[in-house]
Design goal:
heterodimer, A: about 400 residues, five-stranded antiparallel sheet, B: about 180 residues, mainly alpha, 9 helices, 3 strands
């Protein structure tokens, strides 16, 4: 009996569900496999189907006193268990040396890092695909930093699906009378090519930004939590949720808009903790990030240290402040977190409707905490490592490469 | 974890499908024979090896190619639909998978050739849920396998020269680590 054969279309269908590592291997199968796997059409299909929430990138610091000793290590969430400690601590060949760079964001499976050249005060950018381990040379670039004294510059990275361009956003600040940073000038630039900075016209004038400065990327927009500080706001007072807004920059038309945070949180104090700074470009000592993306929704993560509980709010319909809904509300004791008083705890992945994976990263340790709202099941294997700290982030595996850039992905 | 994600996606797909069918049924119900609506009713399908099989309407409903045909014409009990690309053996396998609500364990019992034939059949019959299920099942089979395994699996002849292949293997040498035995 003849063995059944599959036409190329059906072969492509099967291959589109495979992991990137497997596909890189299968490029050797035949010339037709090689061209299929490199085809921008296939790269796009694969990216759409690439599972969300299973791949992590661990940024780790070997020594607190030396910010240059940092590495990025990709890992599958399944390997995040006790067995992983050896890998994290020793396998440097897996990772990308980001000395001198800080991660500023990730989209389409690419991670963008920014650094500052000490000699000539230029911003340097470098884009890396952790799944293929390729550095995209065409996107390597540097721009002069606009002149003026800007103590807290922030940068962010995203993709404009209209012009198929990767863009970086640079926020330049000035200090107000209370020595608070006010972002007065926001500039956008395409990564790669001979582009130059363009100013964003409508950016809110008196806005300072919460968080590490990475804009949170979602569907061609970058989003920050901004505080619209009026001049008579007392310097040392707490900032509440109603004094803040989400500032959103649409990378397609380079225009900004803003919308309110969940109404139920109005009047409540946004007390953050200082954990992560974007070391390379500014001198930030930042608030704990409270904005993220879970299940393709813009998400506010609120860690109330006084009442010791955590809540997660999601904007179901992007841009519509009436669509904020409470997804999760957990008492800290249910999570069995022991690293008190203020753990670095971040919701990374919403696994199912009722499950959230938190990563608790404290000194020399990373913990995976899965909270299941329906059954209160908590799972928290630990990884101890011989390094100073780990900062996890999620990314999506993709085949996006030098060759497929600007074509259709 | 990935498996759970996939299966829930499959369920979602199935739900949309059912919804679509329900909507379709409402329109069909107005103008076609009422008998088609009856639960437990069977449709006769003639397979490529000439076997006439009576298949439950709930399963036939997933075959969009037949669905369109039924919707477009008046049908009665004597209606026989030829499916010239699908053997009785494969149709039986398909019925098992649909009845088993697309359980990954069932897919593991299928041979490689059966998996491929079901994929071809699902594509021909336009069974979206089955197609997605089988494509991901085959992907799971080859995920950690060697280049040689995949050539054999798809019946592909290597058209690279020895030098070309060696060069490609060198470029992504790390992707060849940790591969399962064939």
């Amino acid at each position: 009996m003849n063995r059944p054969t599959l036409c190329e279309e059906l072969q492509a269908e099967i291959l589109s569900w495979l992991r990137v590592k497997t596909l890189l291997r299968f490029k050797c199968v035949s010339k037709s496999f090689h061209s299929l796997i490199s085809d921008p059409w296939f790269v796009k299909l694969h990216l759409q189907r690439s599972p969300r929430g299973v791949d992590l990138l661990l940024e780790y610091l070997e020594d607190d006193n030396n910010l240059e000793s940092r590495f990025l290590v990709p890992c599958h969430i399944g390997s995040l268990s006790d067995n992983h400690k050896a890998t994290v601590a020793h396998d440097r060949t897996l990772g990308f040396d980001i000395s001198g760079y800080g991660v500023i964001g990730s989209c389409n499976g690419l991670v963008c890092m920014a650094g500052r050249c000490k000699k000539d005060e230029r911003c340097m950018f470098c884009v890396w695909n952790p799944a293929t381990r390729e550095t995209l040379e065409d996107l390597k670039c540097s721009f002069p930093i606009p002149s003026g004294h800007h103590p807290r510059r922030k940068v962010a990275f995203g993709y404009d699906d209209l012009s198929h361009a990767y863009k970086v956003v640079l926020m330049l600040d000035a200090l107000d009378l209370n020595r608070r940073s006010i972002y007065r000038d926001v500039k956008v630039c395409n990564v790669g090519g001979n582009s130059c900075w363009r100013s964003v016209e409508s950016f809110p004038a008196k806005t300072t930004m919460q968080g590490s400065g990475w804009g949170v990327y979602l569907n061609s927009t970058l989003n920050w939590v901004g505080l619209d500080l009026h001049d008579n706001h007392p310097h040392d007072s707490y900032i509440t949720f109603d004094e803040s807004v989400i500032v959103s920059l649409d990378l397609r038309n380079e225009k900004s808009s803003q919308f309110m945070l969940p109404q139920a949180l109005h009047g409540i104090c946004m007390n953050g903790i200082c954990m992560r700074g974007s070391h390379s470009l500014g001198y930030d000592w930042d608030f704990h990030d409270c904005l993220g993306v879970l299940k393709d929704c813009l998400t506010v993560f609120f860690h109330d240290h006084n009442k010791r509980h955590i809540s997660i709010w999601q904007m179901r319909d992007f841009g519509n402040h009436k669509s904020w809904s409470l997804s999760l509300n957990i008492a800290m004791q249910d999570l069995q977190i022991v690293s008190m008083p203020r753990p670095y705890l971040h919701p990374l992945i919403m696994l199912e409707e009722n499950e959230v994976l938190f990563i608790e990263g404290t000194y020399k340790r990373i913990r995976r905490v899965i909270y299941d709202r329906s059954g209160n099941i908590v799972e928290h294997p630990q990884i101890h490592c011989n390094i100073f700290g780990i900062y996890p982030m999620t990314y999506v595996q993709s085949l996006v490469s030098q060759k497929s850039l600007g074509l259709c992905v | 974890m990935a498996e759970r994600g996939e299966s829930s996606e499959a369920v979602m797909l199935k739900k949309t499908e059912e919804e679509k069918l329900r909507k379709g049924k409402m329109i069909v119900g107005d103008e076609s024979k009422a008998g088609y609506e009856e639960e437990g009713k069977k449709v006769k399908l003639v397979t490529s090896d000439g076997v006439t099989m009576e298949v439950e309407i709930s399963i036939v409903k997933e075959m969009e190619i037949i669905q369109t045909f039924i919707g477009a014409t008046d049908t009665d009990d004597s209606f026989i639909f030829p499916i010239s690309n699908v053997s009785s053996h494969i149709l039986n396998q398909i019925i098992e998978l649909v009845k088993g609500e697309y359980d990954q364990e069932l897919a593991k019992k299928l041979s490689h050739d059966e998996l491929k034939e079901i994929l071809v059949a699902a594509n021909y019959l336009n069974m979206k849920t089955l197609f997605h299920f089988i494509a991901t099942a085959i992907a799971n089979v080859i995920q950690n396998k060697s280049v040689e395994f995949v050539r054999d699996f798809f019946g592909i002849v290597n058209d690279f020269t020895e030098e070309e292949e060696a060069e490609l293997r060198k470029t992504n040498a790390w992707a060849f680590e940790g591969v399962d035995e064939d």
